[in-house]
Design brief:
By secondary structure, the protein is α+β, with helices and mostly antiparallel strands. It contains 5 helices and 5 strands; from the N terminus they run H-H-H-H-E-E-E-E-E-H. The two termini are 37 Å apart.
């Protein structure tokens, strides 16, 4: 029970290191090979990757850099297969990086898929779509994850008065979904919201 999480964590971290190091490792190895043939220095590819990310971040805060990024976006939008991957990925990352007051900060229960059956969900936003239908005046947009993979699920529009707040952290909610309910928050720690 102790060894499996530690081993899995080390394995994932090593896989990320190897992947990040491997992005620019061939270029660095060719450059270093001019002076030291056949020598591979682990970590230089990761270092170069991090430097490029920092440089892109710095450029994105400058007017010239923003223009370059917009030009790159327009170029990718013209490539048939690339635009179907790049556009949605960029949209998800932008949505996650925006400062939203409620995005994934609340864990709730909703009656789903039928009355008296409850599902755990995460509030992503609020909406007032009364111009579409009077019943849609005060809605919460909730993400209903699937077990054991919380990255897939459903987006539901639920009236605010039909949502039950759970006094648990988002981390506990995700843990509950991933384990299929095996790891539950301690009931004595749950208190009704004020």
């Amino acid at each position: 029970m102790i060894l499996v999480p530690v081993t899995l964590t080390v394995y994932v971290l090593l896989a990320i290191f190897r992947y990040m190091d491997g992005i620019f490792a061939p270029v660095i190895d060719r450059f270093v090979g001019l002076w030291l043939p056949g020598v591979h220095i682990p970590g230089l590819g990761l270092l170069l990757t991090l430097l490029i990310v920092l440089l892109l971040g710095w450029l994105s805060t400058r007017v010239f850099g923003r223009r370059l990024i917009h030009a790159f976006d327009r170029l990718i939008a013209r490539i048939p297969i690339a635009k179907s991957v790049y556009g949605p990925t960029k949209g998800v990352l932008e949505a996650l990086s925006k400062e939203q007051t409620e995005a994934f900060k609340r864990v709730v229960l909703i009656e789903y898929p039928k009355r008296d059956v409850f599902a755990l969900a995460f509030v992503t936003a609020r909406a007032n779509w009364s111009s579409v239908d009077p019943r849609m005046e005060d809605l919460l947009l909730v993400f209903l994850p699937t077990s054991p993979n919380p990255t897939s699920g459903y987006l539901l529009f639920v009236p605010r008065n039909q949502v039950i707040d759970l006094p648990i952290s988002v981390e506990d909610g995700v843990r509950l979904v991933i384990t299929g309910g095996i790891l539950q928050p301690h009931l004595r720690d749950l208190r009704p919201p004020p």
